[in-house]
Design a protein that fits this description.
The protein is mainly α. It has 2 domains: 67 residues, no CATH class; 79 residues, no CATH class. It is built from 8 helices and 4 strands, in the order αββαββαααααα. Strands 1-2 form a two-stranded antiparallel ribbon. It has a two-stranded antiparallel ribbon with strand order 3-4. The longest helix is centred in the C-terminal third of the chain and has 23 residues.
Length: 184
């Protein structure tokens, strides 16, 4: 089955049945996008162009819904402000822990610091975590590790942190013990 574009062009030339040129095809595509796009005034007062597809009733429903939401720019700014507020609150709540700094790229460290602070705050509010259960997480200073394990439950995170700490201790002992094979 040929796509619309392939049906219009055979061997790089316009199909003789339609007698269309490339410019005409592009004009039709632009007109189609213009027909399917609408300018929506959002709840924040900003206007934004949105592409609509589907039945007319679906397009109308989506247009009404979009008018009740913020534009992309305002939504992103609000989300960033909320995240910054949470990061400050979590950072203040765990400031007394004297956590070691994380290692990794600058972007990884910033993100992982926020993830780690949030997780340590959640440890303090959950009775499931043993008295010293979170201490093993203090040993994890790799920013990538915190990012890779961000979706785990508290229990799963503690198990993974214990595995990571064991790996670190094995590597550290192999560096000092000549009888063990050296890491390359």
């Amino acid at each position: 089955m040929l796509t619309n574009w392939q049906a219009l062009h055979v061997n790089g030339l316009p199909h003789s049945r339609f007698n269309l040129t490339h410019t005409h095809c592009l004009d039709m595509a632009v007109e189609h996008l213009r027909f399917m796009s609408k300018i929506i005034t959002h709840a924040c007062g900003h206007e934004q162009i949105h592409y609509f597809s589907g039945f007319a009733s679906q397009q109308e429903r989506k247009a009404r819904w979009l008018a009740t939401t913020k534009c992309r720019t305002c939504f992103a700014a609000t989300k960033q402000a909320e995240q910054a507020e949470v990061a400050v609150r979590d950072g203040a709540a765990i400031a007394h822990l004297d956590l070691p700094s994380l290692t990794g790229s600058d972007r990884q460290v910033v993100w992982a610091t926020t993830l780690r602070a949030s997780r340590f705050c959640s440890f303090g509010t959950r009775p499931v975590i043993e008295e010293n259960g979170y201490q093993v997480c203090v040993l994890v200073t790799d920013a990538k590790w915190w990012i890779d394990h961000r979706a785990l439950t508290d229990h799963e995170l503690l198990e993974e942190a214990e595995r990571y700490a064991v790996e670190l201790s094995i590597l550290a002992s192999s560096d000092h013990d000549p009888s063990l094979p050296q890491a390359v």
